[in-house]
Design brief:
8% of the residues lie in helices and 39% in strands. The protein is mainly β. It folds into 2 domains: 21-245, Jelly Rolls, CATH 2.60.120.200; 269-377, Immunoglobulin-like (Sandwich), CATH 2.60.40. Strands 1, 3, 4, 6, 10, 11, 12 and 14 form an 8-stranded antiparallel β-sheet that branches. A 6-stranded antiparallel β-sheet has the order 2-5-13-7-8-9. A 5-stranded mixed β-sheet has the order 15-23-20-17-18, with no helix packed on it. Strand 11 (179-184) and strand 12 form a beta hairpin.
């Protein structure tokens, strides 16, 4: 009898330890070089203008950055991403800014409009937990007291663990048909009774809501998004945390590519076109060919270092982020013309996003001068 009990306990422990994180997985976006759904259900984005970036382990091209202004992903509505009354949403996010529009919310995942619409599901962070919703008047943004929340979670802050910029967080939401739970970095923050269905006819969005009045643009990075048609158990959540906190396994070790020879650039004069004073120490810069696409090729130089080289200017955006050094030092971005295209000179439309501020400037370069802009961080 004792032997039987020992065996029973041993087998029970084995059973509880074994989990299947593929069961009920309806959409999975590891963002390994692209934004495809790898669950097998083909819930791939039909629109994606987010910028591929490094993930939380420093792996290049393994996460996506959303600039808080116009970047998002859109996945068409399908039966596989509509659920009866159970759901799990899991995502890694690194906030790099806060939304300053109405409600001050930043949407990570959204299907079905606002946070309270029947049948919708969503994950976001905002200040409504701290201000008890009063931030929605558009004039009381409280970026020091932002918390995560999911569909149906209560309007109260969870302790003093408020969101910090440039830090990675795992956010996981479950609903088993009766209770909604929210986990941050594998720790249960709160649970609330909230029976709900998660079925609607809207598309799925990453990086914004699908409500034009309340877009809730995300300024941050997303990675490893998982959507289940069931509520994960505590054991499964523990296993998922262990799997996603550790570096990705069963993947080939990246062998560094041979260094690219630094291009030899002719010494040219710089023509300063405009100087900007910016509010943030990280800004995005996007370049398009200005006018007719005629084969313009450029090298970009930032603070005397080559940022990128051999890039064609087209009607498609060439986007990158630059860090602004503080102090009185001028941060200079130069456009070096590798050719003049078929219609000289080499011209570009440059769009700069400094938080929710947008600037445009036309920049040109020739075989004798580099067009340049400079930035200073507002003190």
């Amino acid at each position: 009898m004792v032997r039987f009990l020992l065996c029973f306990l041993f087998l029970s422990e084995l059973c509880t330890a074994q989990v299947n994180l593929d069961k009920g997985l309806q959409a999975y976006y590891p963002f390994n070089g692209n934004a495809n759904d790898e669950s097998g259900n083909n819930n791939n984005p039909t629109f994606n203008n987010a910028t591929i970036t490094a993930d939380r382990f420093g792996n290049a091209n393994s996460a996506y950055h959303f600039n808080g202004v116009y970047q998002y992903m859109r996945i068409p509505n399908k039966p596989s991403i509509n659920f009866k009354n159970e759901i799990t949403l899991s995502v890694w996010v690194r906030p790099t800014g806060f939304y300053y529009g109405i409600c001050h919310a930043s949407q990570l995942i959204s299907k079905g409009g606002g946070n309270y619409n029947d049948g919708n599901y969503a994950l976001r962070y905002d200040d409504a937990l701290f201000t008890n919703g009063r931030g929605c008047d558009g004039g009381k943004c409280d970026t020091l007291h932002q918390n995560f929340r999911g569909t149906g979670t209560v309007l109260k802050p969870y302790g003093g663990d408020f969101i910090k910029k440039n830090k990675w967080y795992n956010v996981l939401y479950t609903n088993d048909g009766k209770t909604a739970k929210l986990y941050v970095n594998c720790e249960l923050k709160y649970s609330v009774t909230f029976p709900e269905t998660f079925t609607n006819t809207e598309d799925l969005f990453f990086g914004k809501s699908d409500d034009d009045l309340f877009p809730f643009w995300l300024n941050g990075d997303l990675d490893d998004i998982r959507i289940y048609n069931r509520a994960l158990t505590a054991n499964e959540i523990t296993a998922l945390c262990a799997d996603t906190i550790a570096p990705k396994k069963n993947e080939p070790i990246a062998v560094p590519a041979p260094p690219v020879a630094k291009p030899i650039l002719e010494k040219r004069d710089n023509e300063l076109i405009k100087e900007f004073t910016v509010d943030h120490d990280s800004i995005s810069v996007t370049l398009y060919d200005n006018g007719i696409v005629d084969g313009d090729s450029i090298t970009l130089i930032y603070n005397d270092s080559i940022l990128t080289t051999h890039k064609l200017l087209t009607e498609k955006p060439l986007t990158f982020w630059i860090k602004i050094k503080p102090g009185s030092q001028r941060n200079e971005l130069q456009m070096y013309a590798e050719n003049l295209g078929s219609i000289p000179p080499n011209t570009a439309l440059m769009i700069i996003y400094d938080g929710n501020k947008r600037y445009e400037v036309n920049i040109k370069s020739t075989e004798k001068t580099n067009g340049s802009v400079s930035f200073r961080l507002k003190e």
